[in-house]
Specification:
- This protein has 423 residues and is of the alpha/beta class.
- It is built from 19 helices and 16 strands.
- A seven-stranded mixed beta sheet has the order 1-2-7-6-3-4-5, sandwiched between helices. Strands 10-16-15-12-13 form a five-stranded mixed beta sheet.
- It starts with a strand and ends with a strand.
- Its EC number is 6.1.1.1.
Length: 423
């Protein structure tokens, strides 16, 4: 049975955990909401979310299932995070028009290390009874091919597999779907089964695009082991304008500080559209709902204060209170026009100035543009200021003459700024 979040909110639930998730807008679909509610009310439930290692960091889109696990942990349940050391070697074809580039084992291992760092701030990994990271390579790489086909191939029919939207969208677009990609849903289903056997995991949390894969796991466990498992999807988060949240002109909003500085992360949330503030406070902060409701109805100058609170709270979740406080301090100085006294948001080697540092490269480096092409378009459109002066030439270089006390300021539009210190 599929239950949507709006059905769940019509009446109060028995368990605090599921009620909190519904109230905060973290429930999109559930395989059996009433039975899951009863399971939460009966005692601790182990739940997992999985992330393939296709990049060296998670991004804001991944933060929604992570926040779901975070709330479950706060309320006495146990989260597992599955890192796809095995499935990343295949690649999830869901809602893609082409195959993902195949990664080597070395690339996957390197990416997993970065993903671990992305998760550390969101979930409590210190307690032996707390959140646990698991790599599905532990079991997927141990299967023999014929053994896997005999044990699990009989539990899936091609007839049903091609009805899932994730597969159908590729076929309808008349794009090739390899056997390797087609088998991905089987691997994810086996993940859920293995986690239920090894860790008594009863709930899988995933994005709405993972619904078909999650249902496969629930059904596989029922057929093979007679286990009652549950699936829950979180909503795809879009802005009020309909765009997918987490993408900016400068690229993805990464969670790893080496890919996006805590201050740039803070700026992303500080620049949230007015209409999205309430939703983002619900989804991406730990603030109580009473405070979320108060902040969400503010207007004008007061709404800007709500955006600062959102930015600081969300940054604190991912990067910790100290980094969030420092980002707030930097933001207060920058947005108040005090660039001269603001703390640096980025550092660079002054030796690079000798030959003239390309401005396009610097814009990409500090996260104000996703690529040199985007940086060029920003400059040609009159959207870049260097030390308060509009830059018109994309071939412009940065030299020692541009520095004041070893620093310079960059501003892309009115809302995105950076202070670069050269050491």
């Amino acid at each position: 049975m599929t239950v949507h979040a709006r059905s769940a909110s019509a009446s109060r639930l028995k368990s605090e955990a599921l009620q909190v998730l519904v109230d905060r807008g973290l429930v999109h679909q559930c395989t059996d909401l009433e039975a899951l509610d009863a399971a939460f009310a009966a005692g601790p439930v182990t739940a997992y979310a999985g992330f393939d290692a296709t990049a060296a960091s998670l991004h804001v889109g991944h933060l929604v299932p992570l926040m779901t696990l975070r709330w479950l942990q706060k309320l006495g349940h146990r989260p597992l995070v599955v890192l796809g050391g095995g499935t990343s070697l295949v690649g999830d074809p869901s809602f893609r028009n082409d195959a993902r580039p195949l990664l080597t084992e070395a690339q996957v291992t390197e990416n997993i290390a970065g993903i671990r760092r992305s998760i550390e701030g969101v979930l409590d990994l210190d307690d032996s009874e707390g959140a646990r990271l698991v790599d599905n390579a532990e079991w997927l790489t141990e299967f023999r091919f014929l053994e896997f086909l005999r044990d699990y191939g009989t539990q899936f029919t091609v007839n049903r597999m091609i009805t899932f939207d994730s597969v159908r969208s590729r076929l309808d677009a008349q794009q090739p779907l390899t056997v390797l990609e087609f088998c991905y849903m089987m691997l994810q289903a086996v993940d859920f089964l293995e986690l239920s056997r090894r860790h008594e995991c009863r709930l899988q949390v995933g994005g709405s695009d993972q619904w078909g894969n999650i249902v496969n796991g629930v059904e596989l466990a029922r057929k093979t082991d007679g286990r009652r498992l549950f699936g829950l999807t979180v909503p795809l988060v879009t802005t009020a304008g309909g765009a997918k949240m987490g993408k900016t002109a400068a690229g993805a909003v990464w969670l790893h500080p080496d890919h996006l500085s805590p201050f740039a992360f803070w700026q992303f949330w500080r620049n949230t559209a007015d209409a999205d503030v309430g939703k983002c406070l619900r989804l991406f902060t730990d603030l109580p709902m009473s405070e979320v409701g108060r902040l969400a109805v503010l207007e004008g100058v007061e709404l800007n204060e709500a955006k600062k609170i959102l930015a600081t709270q969300a940054t604190g979740v991912v990067h910790g209170p100290a980094a969030a406080g420092a980002a707030l301090e930097q933001g207060e100085a920058l947005f108040a026009g005090g660039e001269a006294s603001a703390r640096p948001t980025h550092e660079a080697d002054c030796a690079r100035l000798a030959a003239g540092l390309g401005l396009l490269d610097l814009l990409v480096e500090v996260g104000l543009a996703a690529s040199n092409g985007a940086a060029r378009r920003l400059i040609e459109g009159g959207g870049l200021r260097l030390n308060g002066e509009t830059v018109a030439d994309p071939r412009r270089t940065v030299t020692a003459a541009d520095l004041t006390d070893g620093r310079l300021t960059l501003a892309a539009g009115r809302r995105r700024k950076a202070v670069v210190a050269f050491r």
